Structures are given as C-alpha cells and as structure tokens.
Amino acid sequence: MKNTNKEKNQLKVLLLEDSTMDAELIVEHLRENFNPKICIDIVIKQEAFIEAISKKTYDLILADFTLPGFDGFAALDHAKSICPNTPFICVSGYIGEEVAVELLKRGATDYVSKDKLGRLIFAIERALKETRESIEKEKRTNELVLANKELALQNKEILYINHHDYLTNLYNRIYFEEEKKHLDAARQLPISVIIGDINGLKLVNDGFGHCKGDEVLVTISKILKDCCREKDIVARIGGDEFGILLPKTDSKSVKLVCACVSDACKDYVLDGTSICPSISLGHGTKYTEAENMDNVCMVAEESMSKHKLLESKSAHSSIIASIKAIMFEKSQETEEHAERIIQLSKAMGVALSLSDDQLNELELLSTLHDIGKMGIGVDILSKPGKLSNKEWVEMRKHPEVGYRIAQATSELFPIANYILCHHERWDGKGYPQGLIGEKIPLLSRIVAIADSFDAMTNDRAYRAAMTSGEAIEEIRKNSGTQFDPKISKLFLNILSKENKEMYHYARK
Q1: Are the CB atoms for 17 and 44 separated by under 8 Å?
Q2: Which of 116, 123, 156, 291 has the highest local Cβ count within 10 Å?
Q3: 152 phi, psi to nearest 5 deg
Q4: Structure pTM?
C-alpha cells in the first residue's frame, strides 16, 4: 500500500532523447529539483515512444526535436493523438524560431533549448500548473453541465407533478382547468366534455382495502385513456371523479366514446373478486362560440348524476355479493351457518313482536354481521390454536371494518350500527365501544346470542363442537354478563318449548 501511494505521488516523466549524454544531463537536472518525487522513463525510437504513451499515463513528455527516423513534429502528433492532455515540452538544440513557433501552434506546451536547462524547471512547473487548472476547469464545467441537466430534469419533473395525478398519471384538475380555457376557441369547435364518477369506490376501499381501490382508479384511468384520442385531455379531477376534454368532437362522437368506456369496464374483473370496475359518465357539447364552457361542464355533470342514480345501485349490489362470497370463503363460515343464525334470530324477533322492517334488518344482519372479516388475514381466521394478543387486536377490528363497509352503501346503511355493536357485552366488557346493557342496539343483542349458540354447536378450527345441552348451559351461565338476560331467557324458552323443530335443526 505504501509503495502504491508513493508511486501515485511521483511525477511521471517520459523522456524522448537519442543522446545518452543529453539524457543524463536532463535526468540529473530533474532529479535535483524533483527528487525523490520523480520517475523518468527514457525512450529513443518512434516505436518505443508510441508503445510507452499507449501503455502508461505520464504527467509530462519531454522530447528532443531531431530523432532517429522521425522528428519532434511526428512525436507531437503521436502524443496529441494518444494522450492529448499530457503536457509536451520540446527540449532540443537550436531549431530556429520558425520551427519553435510551429511546434507551439500544433499544440506543444513549450520549447526549451538544451543550453538553457535552467529554464526547464520553470517550464515544467508552469505546464503542470496549467494542466491542473485545465483539469479543474474541465471538472467544474462537467459538474456545471451535470447540474444544469439535473436542474432541467427536476424542472421537468416539477412541471409533470404540477400537471399530473400521482396515482393514475393522468392530468390533474389544475391542468384540466387550464386546458378548458385554452381549448375554448373557434378552431376547436365542436368541443365536448365528459364527466365521470366511479361507482362504489368507497365500498371497494372499505371492503377490499385501499390497494384494491387504487387498482380500480388505475384501471378506470387506463380504460379512459385507451378509449380517447391522443389529443384529448383525460384528467382525474377529484378522488373518484374524472374529466375529459374532446376538441373537434360532436355529440354523436362523444356518445361513442362513453359507450366504449362502458364496454371496456364490463370486460375487466378485479383480481380476487367478481367486481367489474364501473364509472357513471355524462357529456355535453359546445357548438358555438357564444356558448359558455362552464355551462357545458354543468350539463355533463347533470347527465353523469342521472346515470349514477341508475348504475350505482347495480354496482353496489355486485360489490356486496363479491364481499359476501369472499367473507364466507375467508372465514370458513358457510351460508348454512348464516341461514341457521337467521332462523334463530327471527324466532327471537317474532317472539319480541318486531316490525316487518326490523325483521328484514335482522335477517340482513344475521347474514352480514361478520362482513368486516374481509379485512382479517386468513392465517388468523383459520388458526387452529389460541390467538396471540397481537392477533386478537386484529380480530377485534372486524366490527369497525364491517361498519365502514355498511356505511358506504345505501343497502347496508340501516344495519351499519348493528354490525358495529354485535360483539358488545351486556356487562360492558365487549368491544369496540364497551357499551353496557340496553345501550347496545336490540338487534345486535339478538344476533350475539344466535351467533354464539351456533358457533358453540358447530366445529371450529380451534375447537370441536359442543352438544346443544352444553351450549344451552353456556348461554344460561353468561346471561346477565355477556348476554341480555331477558333475551337469553326468551331464547332458551324458544329452544326448549316453543320451537322444537328449530332446536332439533340447530343441534345437527
């Protein structure tokens, strides 16, 4: 390592000289001034000179002018061709002013007469200094060029970010509004506007997670882009809202674009679901300069709203059906389990003289009370042993997840709060809110008993089924703590007296 550092700090000189005596004088002169930080190679012939500068890197070349078979001009040409940045100093006898000037014109760094070697050290130091400055200047120039390129790239990226949506890479609302003004010109008429709103995005986010919601956004964005021309402005102008500007497009043509989008959505199914991304579209067209562009956009929005009323319910129903199917698959709970809970819950509901609307809500709640398990990992739901504290924290989230899913759609909104409360306990030790007694919604209290009874009397991954008698005893034992005591008593009476056929069914 020390030798390497020493060599790195040495001044490496190539001396092209055919006179042994002159070479010794020059070497001695150099060593007196640079020793021990100098390494000198001496060559005589043209071939050796070319080989030396081709294989090694020198800090300096000192060359005689008159040489065997060639001269200083040829040597200089070889040096400029192979190592153009290496200083070249001609050290020779008298060659005349014209030759010296010509050497300098061709790129030699300096000329020193052999009878004035005292000037050589000055010439070398000046040449090395100029070389260092030239290298440093070139380095700074290159750094400046790179900095300018980086700045230009950053400016380009900033401009892109300012005009584009980060998720979909479509234009954003700012650019949409700018282009709406820019394209509002006679030469672009007729100009059409499409406004679109994704159906059920919140339901997808709550039911399948925001990654799946992002997939919907990206998919819809690609479909919109593919169905439009390159010159059309396709933008994401809100969370689930899109706007498209179509210059030189009449009403008939814009309807075809909307139809293309609808057909493309039907052909795409999200991975792991049976859901087709759905977007409600509306459009408006400006034919004359007198028409106001903002009014055209309002027409498109109103048209979109009308379509959304017709399409949203269908999209929500599709999403809920998919969530329900995946819920049963992930939780290993069957539709038979849901049907048994419906029967048990309805029997209590009838005994309590609930209204028809309440009974319908009770049936829906019995089927979908565990819809929040969509957000729980299969490894937790299917774990054969006891759950860890961390796994219980995850499991206890499912009422809140189910609540968010139910709130996202009008079909399930009426039972959202019941879903949230179906794991509350009469004594206040339940979750997620720790509600006590009659502060827990009635339908949640009913389903809690039916669900617990059916869970106890059927096999689970973590335990074998109890007998009906054992399950009845558990309900009785936990009456007034886990369960509403009045409903518990009612439920036990139904099992033992009023509905023996259902009791027999539940024991199977």
Answers
A1: yes
A2: 123
A3: -65, -40
A4: 0.63
